[in-house]
Each structure stands twice: as C-alpha cells, then as structure tokens.
Amino acid sequence: MDATRGRAGNGSWWQLSGAKDRRQARNDVLVLLVSLSGLAGLALASPFRAVGLEWLFLILLALIADWMPISLGEGLRLRFVAPFLVAVAVTMGPVAAVITDVTALVAAMFGMRLVADGSTHSAARELVRSLAISVLAAGAYWLVVKGDPSAPLMLMAGGTALVLVHTGAHVLFPLEGRRWKIHPLAEMRPSLSLIAIYILLAVAAAVLSMSDSVGWCLLLFGPILALRKYLEVKLRMQAASYNAVTTLAMMLQHAHPYTHRHLERVASFSEEVALRLGLDRARARRVHRAAVLHDIGKIAVDEDILDLPRKLTTEEFAHVQLHAEFGGQILEPVDEFREESCWIRYHHERPDGRGYPEGLLDPEIPIESKIIAVVDAFDAMTGGMEGRDGRPFKEPMSVEAALVELDRCAGTQFDYRVVAAFRAVVEGGR
C-alpha cells in the first residue's frame, strides 16, 4: 500500500508504518551490538588457531552447502551449513565458525541474487539474525568443550550442541520487533530419527575434522543430500495433500457463497481466540486451518437440504448433523490434517454432553474444537459482524445480543474460558 492510499483512511497509516520501521531498525541495531559483543567475548575466551588451507577448504564446503537450501515459503530457507561449522569450530575455534557462517551466507545471498530489487533491507535483517544465531551456537559449543578442548568426546558433544542450537534457533524467526514467527519447518514435526541423523552429522563432522585431513568432510554431503531430498519430498507431499483438501473446501465455498464468507470469518476469529487462550502461534495457525475446513463435511450432505430457505425439520437437521463426522472422515486419512480432523469432528460437541456426533463430556473435547464451536455459533447468530450474511429464515442478532447469548450458554453448550476469550477479542477489535 502506498502512502497516498494510506492517507485516504485516517491520515496516519504511513506515519505508523514509518514508526514501525524505525522501531524494527532500532531492534536490529540492538541485536547487532549484542551479537558483536558476544563475538568479542567469545574471541577473548576461546582460542583462534592458525589459519590455513583447511579453513579455506571448509569455507568452500560451507558455501556449497549454503547454495542448496530448501525454500519453505514466506522468504524462509532451510540451510545445511551447520555440520561444516562444527568442523571449523573443532579445527580453528568457535570464532572461526561464526566467520565461516556469515561469509557463506553473504556469498550465497549475493550469488543467488537474494540482495536485489529493493530487498537490501530484508537481506541486512537476515544477516543480523544469522550473526546472532551463529554467535549463540558457537557460544554453546565453547561452553561444552572449554573444560577439556582436546578430548574427542567433548568435541563431539560440543559439535552436537552447535548443530542443535544453530538449527533450533532458526525455527524462531524474529518478525516486527518483539513478535516471533514460527518457522514452517516446525509444522513439519521433524521425527526423532531426522533429529538423530542431524546430530550424527555433527558428530561425524567433529570426528572427521580431528583426523589428519579435513578433506574427508566431503563425505558429509552424502547424508546431507539424502536428508535434503527427503525434506523436499515431504514438503511436496504436504503441499499436495493441503491443495487437495483445500480444493474440496473451495468447491463448497463456490457452491454456497455464505459458507465462503462464514469460513473466512470463523478462521480469523478462531486464530485470535487461540492466541488469547495461550496457544502458541504454530498451533493457532493450525486452528485457523481447521476452522477454514470445519464445514468440509457438508460436501457429503444433500445440497437441497443445505439450501432450504426455512428452519429444518428434525429429520433434515439430523442429516445435516452428519457433516461433523463426515468432515473428520474426509480429513483423517491425510497425515497433514490428522490432528485437525479430530477438532473438526468434535466442533459440535458440548461440555454438558448433549452435543454430536459422540456426546462427549467437557474434558474429552479438544480446546481447539471448543474454540471453533464458539466462533461458529457467534457468526451464525450475527451473520457476520455487520449482519450481511444472516440465514434466510432468521433475522441476524446484534453483536451485543449474540455475546449475551454466548454468556448464557457458557458451561452448557460452550466452554467458559473460550467464551470469555472470544468476548475479549471481539471487544478489543471493536
């Protein structure tokens, strides 16, 4: 959005945007100063061994590794440089590992044209972030090995610490000042076997670098390439599964325009309520995704009944109630949506045990299902915050009346905590 368009609203959008950029710049400078201070302290506390051809060779290997990242969307890339940083730390010291990491990143950024077309600022932020993470990882390495920097077991343990901290810190990506965004890799739920493989790579890097020639570190590319291929295939399969299911949801949305707008609103509010209740951002996004798909079971429901412009009979309503179970059955076979399928199946359950499809009692109902239930009911009662999508057979309620109704049904139809959190979200937004 340009500044002119921003002024058309309240005259301050561009000012707020500029202020946010200045705050972010101050935070970036602070992170840079802290990182440089940490690097200086690390340089004073740890050895920096003589620079030789080994280091140049390892820098080259790190650069090659940085030229084959996996794109995870939203401008984020998964790097495979950490095992080579372990080799550098063992042979040259932890400060050399930091220098190697930053050098490889800068070379990769320019080589892959990541610094171009006005993206210099974001590239600088990426560099500052990576410097901070690299110093943190190198510090973890030195804290482990400083007791006995010549012991092989200590060096291998230090390499493991470096890899885990370096890779784990990249899971959290700083966004807009103090807010943090969960890396998409976190949603892949890496198995213990994958983590173990990466730890073994760290140990292998430490062992190879302790040998007479670091040239053996070339062998690390074999398992790294295999791991990269596995993650690439897994990402592709997840994308295919997600696209297949969301295509079904889009079919439902196009067939029923009310449902389209309803799903968007329920998903947005559900994510906000999840955050208000203390769920982490990754889980809140999964709640958003489940809310988008919570009515997908209506694909298997008779359209003639869904489109009736009147209140449904008992038999018709019983048929529509099947959509919760159908939704769970549609999504359950898809690994990417297995957990969400449970939330969708139970989003019409009630704390008093009078819900459907299984009549679960309060402790048995997932909190995610309870969130979707409250937001879904509110949107159905109001027809959206402005009442434009009311049901044809029922006048939409006002926002205040709907909130009162939610309060009245808290403890029986809805969860007390969810109702309170939803009210806070609505009143805060208004």
Helical fraction equals 55-70%
How much of the polypeptide forms β-strand, as a percent range?
Answer: under 5%
> Averaged pLDDT, please?
77
Q: List the domain count as a whole number.
A: 2
Write the layout of secondary structure elements.
Layout: H1 3-7, H2 13-45, H3 53-66, E1 70-71, E2 77-78, H4 82-92, H5 94-111, H6 120-145, H7 152-169, E3 172-175, E4 179-182, H8 184-187, H9 192-209, H10 221-255, H11 257-276, H12 281-292, H13 303-306, H14 314-331, H15 338-345, H16 367-382, H17 399-409, H18 416-429
Antiparallel strand pairs: 1-2, 3-4
General description of the model:
With 430 residues, the chain is mainly alpha-helical. It is 66% helix and 3% strand. The protein has helices at 3-7, 13-45, 53-66, 82-92, 94-111, 120-145, 152-169, 184-187, 192-209, 221-255, 257-276, 281-292, 303-306, 314-331, 338-345, 367-382, 399-409, 416-429; strands at 70-71, 77-78, 172-175, 179-182. The model is unreliable at 1-17 and 174-186 (pLDDT under 50).
Question: Short description, anyone?
Answer:
With 430 residues, the chain is mostly helical.
Keywords:
430 residues; mainly alpha; Arp2/3 complex 21 kDa subunit ARPC3; Hypothetical protein af1432; 2 domains; two-stranded antiparallel sheet; 18 helices; 3% strand; disordered N terminus
